Amino acid sequence: MEIIVGKTAGFCFGVKNAIDKTKEEIEKNKNIYCLGELVHNKQVTEELIKKGVTFIDKIDDAKNKVIIRAHGAPKSVYEMANKLNIEIKDLTCPKVLHIHDIAEKYKNKNYFIFLVGQKKHPEIVGTISFCGDNATIIESQEDVKEAIERFNKLKLENALVIAQTTFSLEKFNSITNKLQENIKNLEIKNTICNATKKRQEETLEMSKKVDLMIIIGGKHSSNSNKLYEVASKNCNNVLFIETKDEIEIEKIKSVNRIGIMAGASTPEKSIIEVVDILKKIC
After folding, report:
1. What confidence tier does 242 reach under pLDDT thresholds 50, 70, 90?
2. What is the pLDDT of residue 165?
3. Quick one: CATH architecture of 13-92?
4. What residues are labeled active site?
5. Are 13 and 267 in contact (CB under 8 A)?
6. Which residue, 93, 187, 268, 278, has most beta carbons within 10 Å?
7. Whether residue 166 has pLDDT greater than 80
8. Considering the entire predicted model, what is its pTM?
9. Architecture of the domain spanning 95-188
């Protein structure tokens, strides 16, 4: 049995930065509050809870200091923290902060903003708050027609497209192509993270060459779910697991070549454990 581990598997810069700096904060203060899950990984979350991090859903529940997670937060969170005199440790991924800056810049230039991404994803919930009133979220092709109608109704001259950093590259291109067919003055900024693009591209190529693909990542992780979608298009056998305990041994025994890819929030430890189990089965 041959085991191939993706070169781009595991933590991206934004996730690693958020986790490392949270651990630094724990050394200074054992009782730390974090607004929402720091990253979408159950194992990481459980480890941080043991170290003293308290995860909260509302900024009002924080005391003295709160961490803003890698996905970012809406503008209202920063305003409320200031009002309540709560110190913020902002660990929003730099790529996400860059998108916030773009959104505000184009909002001030009176552009209509099409934000492509998952409507309920925390990154999108945060980003849309920087886009102003003349903006809409597009999650799928089904949303495009209504989004165009809203733009036309406002009679603005220019429009901008930006995207969730972990969105599907294929879906983004499909949506922007449709927008271009209907809007004349449209500026497109592909803000999907480069690490996300490379991981999806590597998964695509790997899935064509193996008998079984294993995607390791949190079930609520957007980028991990995208990897599963990409792999499933080219490989009939795809396992989506969070830990080694979910490996279906019977499916493994009959294959010759296995490809492994992990989401941006998946710890290296989880990847190593899966590889070790596969080697034992061999």
Report:
1. very high
2. 95
3. 3-Layer(aba) Sandwich (3.40)
4. 123
5. no
6. 93
7. yes
8. 0.89
9. 3-Layer(aba) Sandwich (3.40)
